[in-house]
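Tokens in:
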């Protein structure tokens, strides 16, 4: 069997390696426009902020490794079109301009996503590397991180604006602060990280962002980037800001150009797949990673949840099913975590706000408690919130925040959501007690005990 994997970051790399691991006789070829693979984009802020000194540690694989495993790796190659009926692709080698065709028995789409480029006046500029006005950057690829780091070395770069207060934006403001820059965080929503946390949690994050000296502008929308040759000023619906550099962090969309006219997709372009990662339109086409939907354990539907953890699991599932092994994707809870100026936050499933937007009828419970007995020499408050179905009482989401690092406790809630536990069952779960670590009735279960 000949399998072509389009895209070779986390999802594509996992799929290609497991195809060869399961069946060494399988002919596997990967194509990718980029010159490197498996770059951990969520480590960009750590690299930009000088926490990570050597960026090579942010790569989890390389072409030589995959070639050594018998995978035919084609980097710097762009697939320009797909003949779905005849199972052929047209490819262009970017370095030489040479064009050729290849064929497949099965194909796995792992083409990933690209940063959203909103229709803001003055954002784009012809002739630049990413089509952005000079002084404006995206933060996703290794090369984009390199560009940001080089820009920060210029002595004239004193004021930086980060546009978008999702995970990437919030991580980057700390990185720029580490460089001694004056930082503005601009967000059109009234809260930071509003897609992941509810107000009880984001209030604490915003407090720490402001205490760190960040000019936090919430509920404010960018309207125009001003500057003839280079960015000089940002105009919003509420004011004007002189800046030397801006980073666009307003989200991602699937790279859907190759398949959008053939496969079934969500409105954003994510391929609709079943739990085997097979597309709903073509039995020989699978889709994984940031270009694909994934089954959500919280909503019980296929959603767009672009996370590296999902991508790797999707790659493993797709490889097994391509080779005839029946392996189902077990679902995702969208678990994630972030450290905001030393304040640790984690979430899984849906927040109250997101659940309601998706039409789920939910109830919630919020608890603030010490993370260990008050008779201990030290302790810190923990904020924890659960979201559960109004009728079945099934857990659909949870959020944790504390100065102390309790982020990994989110895994307990994640497993509870995956296994359809009710809030009442979770309240009676068996978790250990020791004063060094928690209370006899830990905040972890107390938030469920006190739920209505």
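Residues out:
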């Amino acid at each position: 069997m000949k399998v072509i994997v389009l895209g070779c970051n986390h999802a594509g790399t996992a799929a290609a390696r497991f195809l060869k691991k399961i069946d060494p006789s399988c002919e596997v070829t990967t194509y990718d426009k980029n010159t490197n693979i498996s770059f951990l984009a969520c480590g960009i802020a750590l690299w930009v902020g000088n926490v990570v000194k050597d960026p090579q540690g942010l790569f989890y694989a390389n072409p030589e490794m995959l070639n050594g495993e018998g995978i035919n790796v084609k980097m710097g190659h762009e697939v320009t079109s797909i003949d779905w009926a005849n199972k052929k692709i047209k490819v262009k080698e970017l370095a030489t301009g040479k064009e050729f065709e290849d064929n497949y028995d099965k194909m796995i789409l792992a083409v990933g996503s690209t940063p959203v480029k909103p229709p803001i006046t003055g954002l784009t500029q012809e002739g630049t590397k990413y089509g952005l006005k000079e002084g404006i950057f995206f933060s996703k690829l290794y090369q984009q991180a390199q560009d940001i780091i080089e820009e920060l070395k210029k002595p004239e770069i004193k004021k930086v604006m980060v546009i978008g207060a999702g995970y990437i934006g919030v991580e980057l403001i700390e990185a720029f602060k580490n460089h001694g820059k004056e930082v503005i965080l601009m967000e059109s929503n009234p809260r930071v990280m509003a897609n992941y946390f509810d107000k009880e949690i984001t209030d604490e994050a915003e407090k720490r962002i402001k205490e760190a000296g960040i000019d936090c502008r919430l509920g404010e929308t960018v309207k125009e980037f001003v500057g003839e040759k280079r960015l000089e000023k940002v105009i919003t619906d509420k004011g004007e800001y002189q800046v030397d550099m801006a980073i666009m962090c307003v989200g991602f969309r699937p790279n859907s150009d190759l398949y959008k006219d053939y496969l079934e997709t969500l409105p954003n372009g994510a391929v609709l797949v079943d739990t085997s990662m097979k597309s709903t339109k073509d039995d020989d086409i699978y889709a994984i990673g940031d270009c694909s939907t994934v089954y959500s354990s919280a909503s019980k539907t296929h959603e767009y949840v672009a996370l590296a953890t999902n991508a790797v699991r999707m790659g493993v599932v797709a490889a097994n099913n391509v080779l005839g092994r029946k392996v189902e994707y077990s679902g995702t809870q969208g678990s994630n975590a972030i450290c905001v100026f030393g304040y640790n936050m984690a979430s899984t499933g849906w927040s109250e706000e997101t659940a309601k937007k998706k039409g789920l009828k939910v109830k919630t419970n919020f608890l603030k408690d010490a993370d260990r007995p008050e008779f201990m020499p030290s302790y810190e408050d923990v904020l924890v919130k659960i979201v559960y179905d109004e009728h079945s009482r099934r857990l659909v989401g949870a959020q944790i925040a504390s100065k102390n690092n309790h982020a990994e406790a989110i895994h307990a809630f994640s497993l509870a959501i995956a296994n359809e536990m009710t809030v009442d069952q979770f309240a009676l779960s068996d978790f250990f007690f020791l004063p060094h670590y928690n209370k006899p009735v830990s905040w972890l279960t107390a938030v469920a005990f006190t739920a209505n």
